[in-house]
């Protein structure tokens, strides 16, 4: 589907649509910390945080992150461990690793100034078409599309677009539509208004059409088709993985933790030792004990079960049985592991699943 086939664009009175949308946004927009100014660094950080995360969740994280890393220079020069700790709990950690890498480039190559051209900003690690468009339009007033799920949902209804928004190629259709509709005088307010409309009014399951400022422009509303859009195919079923994890202490009461690899799922975060359960073993405990014996030549004593938990990713589900036990012959030089006190544990960034494990341990 190309812009030439978006015949419904011809039915939209563009200037009136822009005016109705922007007027509503200027009156009804939420007070959000990244909207207090149009600092491109703050816009950038907020947009990365908001990917796959709710606004209410992001606000306290954003405020803490800005307090800790208020400038491009501060984030560029920060220790990665400290950055991951500040992000702890937001998930999708590749976002913040890419953000820091890109910020380092901005610091060294662009004198700390976030680029204001599409070519330059798109070359930065982790900056895709949406993030580039959001920064350019919101912070610099460049009429560039910023198409996310909210925007695709809103425009699929307004323009009666029935393309599957789960397909990557469909985004181009919406980007082309925004290029026609966007206000050249105030692209910042226009793009933010589309996002805000999707978040507050044109919601996924129960759009509040009677409160919508652009209802008169909406083809789906006039045809009674708003609940049928957007078209979105279902994702593949998540793979289920069974894990056994152990919270182990040494003779001094220190807790054993290990760092995950520098790439892949939850890269560079810390965790409690765990293994994927193999049905060939007579028990999970024996598998955990053999894991330590074979890989590190260490003896462990696995005691009671602390409980179980389920952790859901976009592509897989972890079903974890949690044990507690003792590490009988740990040495400081053991590779890949650290023994830390309860207080020191607070300095390390853990995935949410392992934070929950620790809470179960404390409650046991």
Walk me through this protein's architecture.
42% of the residues lie in helices and 14% in strands. The longest helix has 16 residues. It has two domains: 226 residues, Endonuclease III, domain 1, CATH 1.10.340; 125 residues, Nucleoside Triphosphate Pyrophosphohydrolase (Alpha-Beta Complex), CATH 3.90.79.10. The protein is elongated and about 75 Å long. Strands 4-1-6-5 form a four-stranded mixed sheet, with helices on both faces. Strands 3-2-7 form a three-stranded antiparallel sheet, with no helix packed on it. The protein is of the alpha+beta class and 364 residues long. The N terminus is likely disordered. The chain contains 14 helices and seven strands. Helix 1 crosses helix 11, helix 2 packs across helix 3 and helix 9 crosses helix 11.
Short description:
The chain has 14 helices and seven strands. The protein is of the alpha+beta class and 364 residues long.
Features:
single chain, 364 residues, Endonuclease III, domain 1, Nucleoside Triphosphate Pyrophosphohydrolase, three-stranded antiparallel sheet, elongated
Lay out the secondary structure.
Elements: H1 14-28, H2 40-50, H3 55-68, H4 72-76, H5 80-87, H6 94-109, H7 118-122, H8 129-140, H9 149-158, H10 170-181, H11 187-200, H12 219-223, E1 239-249, E2 255-259, E3 270-271, E4 274-276, H13 284-296, E5 300-312, E6 316-327, E7 337-340, H14 352-363
Gyration radius, to the nearest Å?
A: 25 Å
Number of domains: 2
The strand count comes to 7
Instruction: From the 3D structure, determine the CATH topology of the largest domain.
Output: Endonuclease III, domain 1
Helix- and strand-based class? alpha+beta
SS strand fraction? 5-15%
CATH superfamily of the largest domain: Hypothetical protein, domain 2
- Which ranges are low-confidence, i.e. pLDDT below 50, for 5 or more consecutive residues? 1-5
Strand order of the largest sheet: 4-1-6-5
Number of helices: 14
Please estimate the helix content: 40-55%
How far is the first residue's CA from the last residue's CA?
Answer: 58 Å
**CATH architecture level-2 label of the largest domain:** Orthogonal Bundle
Q: What is the CATH C level class of the largest domain, in words? A: Mainly Alpha
Shape: elongated
Order of helices and strands: HHHHHHHHHHHHEEEEHEEEH
Mean pLDDT: 92
Query: How is the main sheet built?
Result: 4 strands, mixed
């Amino acid at each position: 589907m190309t812009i030439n086939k978006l015949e419904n664009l011809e039915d939209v009175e563009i200037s009136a649509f822009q005016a109705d949308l922007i007027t509503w946004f200027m009156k009804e927009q939420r007070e959000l910390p990244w909207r207090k100014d149009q600092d491109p660094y703050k816009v950038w950080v907020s947009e990365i945080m908001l990917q796959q995360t709710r606004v209410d969740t992001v606000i306290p994280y954003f405020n803490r992150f800005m307090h800790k890393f208020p400038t491009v220079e501060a984030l560029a020069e920060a220790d990665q461990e400290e950055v991951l700790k500040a992000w702890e709990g937001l998930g999708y950690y590749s976002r913040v690793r890419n953000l820091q890498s890109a910020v380092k480039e901005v610091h060294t190559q662009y004198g700390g100034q976030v680029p204001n051209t599409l070519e330059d900003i798109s070359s930065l690690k982790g900056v895709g078409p949406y993030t580039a468009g959001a920064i350019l339009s919101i912070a610099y007033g460049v009429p560039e599309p910023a198409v996310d799920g909210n925007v695709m949902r809103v425009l699929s209804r307004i323009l009666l677009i029935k393309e599957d928004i789960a397909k990557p190629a469909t985004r181009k259709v919406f980007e082309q539509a925004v290029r026609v509709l966007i206000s050249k005088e105030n692209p910042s307010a226009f793009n933010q208004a589309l996002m805000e409309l999707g978040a507050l009014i044109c919601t996924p399951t129960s759009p509040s059409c009677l409160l919508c400022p652009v209802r008169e422009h909406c083809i789906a509303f006039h045809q009674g088709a708003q609940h049928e859009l957007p078209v979105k195919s279902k994702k593949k079923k998540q793979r289920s993985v069974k894990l056994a994890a152990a919270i182990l202490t040494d003779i001094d009461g220190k807790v054993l933790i290990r760092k995950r690899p520098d790439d892949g799922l939850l890269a560079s975060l810390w965790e409690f030792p765990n293994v994927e359960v193999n049905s060939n073993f007579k028990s999970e405990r024996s598998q955990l004990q053999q894991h330590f014996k074979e890989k590190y030549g260490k003896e462990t004593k696995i005691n009671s079960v602390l409980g179980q938990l389920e952790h859901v990713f976009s592509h897989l589900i972890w079903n974890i049985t949690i044990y507690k036990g003792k590490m009988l012959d740990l040495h400081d030089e053991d590779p890949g592991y650290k023994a830390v006190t309860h207080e020191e544990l607070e300095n390390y960034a853990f995935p949410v699943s392992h934070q929950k494990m620790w809470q179960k341990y404390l409650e046991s």
